[in-house]
Design goal:
- The chain is α+β, with helices and mostly antiparallel strands.
- It has a single domain (3-377), classed as 3-Layer(aba) Sandwich (Beta-lactamase).
- The protein has helices spanning 3-11, 23-33, 69-81, 115-127, 152-156, 174-180, 184-189, 205-219, 223-235, 261-272, 285-291, 371-377; strands spanning 49-52, 84-91, 94-100, 109-110, 240-243, 257-260, 276-277, 280-281, 306-307, 314-316, 324-326, 337-341, 345-350, 355-361.
- It is globular, with a radius of gyration of 20 Å.
Length: 381
């Protein structure tokens, strides 16, 4: 089915909900219509979405590169074999390599799923929220609930103790309704406490959605508007968009931010530059320092951001999930940071070499996290 037909099908489901609407029915219809196999590249298929307005600024091009051309060709070969749509390399804040697969270019917007989590964490930093406060400060529904004692830090480090429901085709499942349901705030607030807060790492979309809900309540602004003003316009991004659960409803903050590959590179650069853009501190430097600190429950995770050191050959997302991310070798430099999305969507940040590497493409179960950055790093002069 052509993309425009899919969009029209989904648009038919975006009328305001009535009290009689059944969440599972809406979820099932959206799941049926959504082009899951092309979710990354067919970023405009889902509706409703809300614009994240940018303030486009040209990305500087490097006059010469400190990376050997043969190494970039070698890295491009791996990206191509993994059916990548976009592969970009920035060094010293300037673009040294940019390639797109046939049919794609720098104006295409992509939806690399969980890479949005890191953007959301940057926005929380810009809001200067006290992340060691219990979430009941904002989630008043949990005021007299044991879940209210969870801290915002524990949500951001995936150590809240909330359940990690598996994604399944069941439209009544929490994880499924968090993606496609018409009331994702209600869905996230229904996640059960299954472990003591702060006791175990378990990667859950619910944690990130609750953090986004807290951001909206704390700032009194719609998520897209806050993201636009505090992150997207300052970095010089093009217009982006984020999924909503219904017209005028809640933004997805765990996934579903549609943006160009260049703008994903700009997010990596923002972290590399410790929250500063063109001399302006967009996100507090101390917040970025918090983001890159290892969580107490996982040495390879910070605040919605993955850490490449210490080396782990098979990185687990939770004890209840069989999904792992593999790396045949350690990263060729210590201190690598990365945004992780949808089985092979990545933004790698190498602070010691002032490098940002973006790969967006088809989901790949054979993706090796060490290959692309190490091939680039091998060419440093």
């Amino acid at each position: 089915m052509p993309a425009h037909r899919l969009t029209l099908t989904l648009l038919a489901l975006t009328a305001p909900l009535s009290a009689q609407d059944d969440i599972a029915t809406v979820t099932a219809e959206r799941m049926k219509a959504f082009p899951a196999a092309q979710a990354v590249e067919n970023a405009e298929a889902y509706q409703p979405a809300e614009e994240v307005k940018g303030s486009p600024r040209r990305l500087a091009l490097a006059k010469e590169s400190r990376i050997d051309a043969a190494a970039l060709t070698n890295a491009q070969d791996y990206a191509d074999r993994q059916k990548s749509f976009a592969f970009l390399v920035l060094q010293d804040g300037k673009l040294v390599h940019e390639r797109y697969a046939a049919g794609f270019n720098s104006t295409n917007r992509f939806s690399p799923a969980s890479m949005h989590k890191t953007v959301m964490a940057l926005a929380i930093g810009a809001a200067r929220l006290d992340i060691d406060k219990p979430v009941s400060k904002w989630l008043t529904e949990w005021k007299d609930d044991p879940r209210g004692a969870i801290t915002l830090r524990q949500l951001l480090t995936m150590s809240s103790g909330l359940e990690t429901p598996p994604f399944s085709p069941d439209p009544k499942g929490l994880s499924t309704q968090l993606f496609f349901g018409p009331d994702i705030a209600k869905t996230a607030l229904n996640y059960k406490l299954v472990a003591a807060p702060g006791s175990v790492f378990s990667y859950s979309n619910g944690n990130s959605q609750l953090a986004g809900l807290i951001l909206e309540r704390a700032t009194g602004q719609r998520y897209a508007d806050f993201l636009s003003a505090k992150i997207w316009k300052p970095i010089g991004g093009d217009n982006a968009s984020v999924w909503l659960d219904r017209p005028g409803g809640m933004a997805h903050s765990f996934c579903c931010l549609q943006a160009t590959a260049r703008d994903w590179a700009r997010i990596g650069q923002l972290i590399l530059d410790e929250g500063k853009v063109r001399g302006r501190q967009v996100v507090p430097k101390e917040w970025v320092a918090e983001m890159v600190k290892p969580a107490a429950t996982n040495a390879n995770y910070g605040l919605q951001l993955w850490l490449g050191s210490p080396y782990v050959a098979e990185r687990k997302y939770s004890s209840s999930s069989a999904l792992v991310a593999k790396a045949a070798k350690p990263f060729a430099r210590d201190g690598v940071l990365f945004l992780d999305g949808a089985v092979g969507q990545r933004v790698y940040i190498v602070p010691s070499e002032k490098l940002v590497i973006v790969r967006i493409g088809q989901s790949s179960m054979s993706w090796d996290d060490s290959e692309l950055p190490n091939r680039v790093l091998a060419g440093l002069r």
